[in-house]
Amino acid sequence: MQFSNAGFRRAGDVSFSPCFGEAQLVSSGGDNVIKDVWMRDKGDHCECIAVCVDDLLIASKDPDSVVKLLMEKHQFKLKGTGPVEFI
Prior knowledge:
By secondary structure, this protein is of the alpha+beta class. The protein has 2 helices and 6 strands.
């Protein structure tokens, strides 16, 4: 499992449901803190995206493919993508 982080500019109250749902990611559905954790089953592993204010933490065997999907298909404007240096 590898981890990647990315910063993004949030335009107002962004809803992740449309694009994350289309990417087959489901919300953990918890309280305000936990509901911004999105997951999908990839068969041999589970990919997770945690959202905190204007940062994403991506856990996946191939986090670069998740970043590419968000940037190219869903037009996310991500900056500072790459391996996690600290949490």
